[in-house]
Design goal:
Number of helices: 18
Number of strands: 21
Strand order of the largest sheet: 3-8-7-4-6-5
Mean pLDDT: 88
């Protein structure tokens, strides 16, 4: 194994003697390729026969686009050493494994789809949270999990609980530990059992994560509450049960998370606690969707200009660039003049020599495009708790936010945008915070358009401005909304990216504009985004949706549009794939809303209890055929903000 934890002496031994090397994309990017002519790496590249990429389906979005460019650089180095390795990949079931493999590795692939691996059985329990008394609201999966975990610890059942965000990990960890610290009379495990569970997520230090892995593998922990950081690869010993707090976003991730329990050929036991999302509620009605192999398409964009530029810089430092490299990097003709003007390249007889910093491969993060990193500083002792990118900082450590790390709460006293430091102090509050987000849109240029029954679909470049003017406070344990507060400093980001948008029919505009108290367009954008996420294997960190108004050419009146856009500068192919499936996404959205078990509309299917889903279904169906608007629309009190 050759990774960040491998000692220098062991690395030297591996480079000299190993026939099979297990490593990761970060190590290939920052060590193998930049040092290809040093320390014996030339011995590896000149004799390289096979490159095996496991869990191919995880290489999508920004990470997959970076991986594709790493493979471009690796193939370039191999050609220099006159080797031609064969690529082999393995993937969970997705709709386009060959397309993804060819996009990432280059060349042609043969699909071997018969599974001959030994496997134990799988038992899945579907858990629908109950309604809160005298309300239309269901309890959330976080609340259900935090109530279940103490019983599992008490009964000696070893578990892993997966959450979809860092915040959920910390909320469940705190609430479960609160309950475990109150348990007494347990002679087999002790009175205070709160130390028997731990959190695990990005933002913990490598030392913290290693200690948690060690305790879990040795049995000193009964369970761990994790993001998808523990979905793959890490040996955490034998577990009895996997709990998923909401559908994890893709079927590939669902089966991976289920398989973390009962590994080594045993039966896998899993619980999927349904969230309020429409996909969760759709699965509650149609469990068989989980075994449908035709829906999910893994998406990357290896030609994203921001990502390609980063890897061209790294490639130039590895070997001089030439015109032949345009076959490797399609945008080389645009990138080289920029780097020459920046003083990072010099033209020497048609070869372009790197003259920039010594280590351009270290200038970017493979798992994110945003390289503006913020430190979270504990004012009480002067230590840095964690680091995060700017997008996450604006959402999680804005002024007066409650930031939670390893079950500890911190109040954000100040967010310094210049020095990128969030100053926090330890507190003990009865609530956590969630940001409120607003967007505005400017269409820069359109590339494609097509008729979709009664609407039109468009694909092109857009500029989206996201502002976070306020936050809401959510009480622990009962998850009541305690109200909203304005944020004292302007927090906004502008992104030029790719998007696809639907034109809203005139009669839908007319009807929706008549309901001035409620924004029914939000129901359209919510349902269409949920359907798009299912088709593209994207998450809410990859894609978003909003509503905007614009004039059509030759028309004085403004029309309404529903925009689905990539959350990455330059786009990563998600919205373009959504454009390809524009018709299917409308049909899927109708199905999701119709199959929701709510009576009239809820956050799962239409995004808001105040919206009547009959009117949302009509709006979606009107994109495809002319139908009559429903009558007797429900009226509800206005939201608190």
């Amino acid at each position: 194994i050759y990774d960040g934890d491998t000692t220098p002496n062991e690395r030297a031994r591996i480079r000299k003697n190993a026939n099979i090397i297990l490593t990761n994309p970060e190590m290939i990017n920052s060590s193998f390729l930049p040092n290809h002519s040093l320390f014996g790496f030339n011995h590896i590249f000149s004799r390289l026969k096979f490159v095996v990429i496991d869990e191919l389906h995880t290489y999508r979005g920004a990470f997959g686009s970076h991986m594709a460019n790493i493979m471009r650089r690796l193939n370039r180095i191999c050609r220099y050493y006159q080797s031609s390795p064969q690529f082999i990949t393995s993937s969970a079931t997705i709709a386009n494994p060959v397309e993804l493999a060819e996009n990432i590795c280059g060349g042609k692939f043969v699909h071997v789809f018969k599974d001959g691996s030994p496997s134990g059985g799988k038992k899945i329990f579907f858990w629908q949270p109950p309604f809160i008394r005298d309300t239309q609201y269901r309890k959330g999966p976080e609340e259900e999990a935090s109530e279940l975990i103490p019983d599992l610890v008490d009964k000696g059942i070893r578990f892993i609980s997966f959450c979809k965000s860092r915040r959920e990990v910390e909320v469940i960890l705190k609430e479960a530990r609160d309950r475990l610290s109150d348990i007494d009379g347990r002679p087999s495990l002790g009175k205070d059992l709160s130390h028997m569970v731990a959190g695990y997520r990005g933002g913990y230090t490598p030392e913290e994560r290693a200690e948690i892995e060690k305790k879990l593998s040795s049995g000193k922990l009964m369970g761990v509450i994790s993001t998808n950081a523990l979905e793959l690869g890490i040996d955490i010993g034998k577990l009895d049960l996997s709990i998923m707090c909401g559908f994890p976003g893709t079927k590939a991730s669902f089966w991976q998370q289920l398989g973390r329990a009962g590994r080594r050929g045993d039966i896998s036991y899993g619980i999927l606690i349904f969230d309020v999302s429409p996909v969760d509620q759709y699965i509650a009605v149609k469990n068989e969707w989980l075994t449908d192999k035709t829906v999910e398409n893994a998406v990357i964009d290896k030609n994203n200009l921001f990502i390609e530029l980063a890897h061209v810089r790294a490639a130039a430092a590895e070997l001089p660039l030439s015109l032949d490299d345009a076959a490797v990097f399609p945008d080389l003709g645009e990138i080289v003049p920029v780097l020459i003007n920046a003083g990072e390249l010099k033209n020497r007889g048609g070869n372009f020599i790197w003259t920039g910093n010594e280590f351009p491969a270290g200038d970017f993060n493979l798992r994110n495009i945003n390289n503006n990193i913020y430190k979270v500083l504990n004012k009480a002792n002067g230590t840095v708790i964690t680091e995060m990118d700017e997008t996450m900082a604006f959402h999680e450590v804005h002024p007066k936010a409650i930031y939670i790390h390893d079950g500890m709460q911190y109040l954000v006293e100040n967010l310094d945008l210049t020095n990128r430091i969030a100053t926090v102090v330890p507190v003990d509050m009865n609530y956590f915070t969630v940001p409120f987000v607003e967007t505005s849109v400017n269409v820069l240029r359109g590339f494609k358009s097509k008729e979709i029954k009664r609407t039109h679909g468009y694909f092109g470049d857009v500029k989206v401005k996201e502002a976070i003017p306020a936050y809401k406070m959510i009480q622990f344990h009962n998850h009541q909304n305690l109200g909203f507060e304005r944020i004292s400093i302007p927090l906004y980001q502008e992104i030029e990216t790719e998007g696809m948008w639907y034109a809203v029919p005139d009669e839908v505009d007319e009807v929706y504009n008549g309901y001035t108290m409620f924004n029914y367009y939000n129901g359209l954008k919510h349902s269409l985004l949920n359907a798009a996420l299912m088709r593209t294997m994207a998450t809410r960190e990859d894609m978003a949706s909003t509503v905007f108004n614009d004039k059509e050419e030759g028309d004085d009146a403004k029309k309404s549009y529903i925009l689905l856009y990539d959350l990455y500068p330059g786009g990563l192919g998600f919205s373009e794939k959504a454009y390809d499936f524009a018709y299917e996404i409308i049909k899927d959205a109708v199905t999701l809303v119709k199959n929701c078990r709510c009576d009239g509309g809820c956050p799962a299917c239409v995004g808001d209890y105040h919206l009547d889903k009959k009117l949302i279904i009509w709006g979606l169906e009107s994109l495809l055929s002319e139908t009559k608007a429903p009558m007797n629309i429900k009226k509800a009190p206005r939201a608190p903000f």
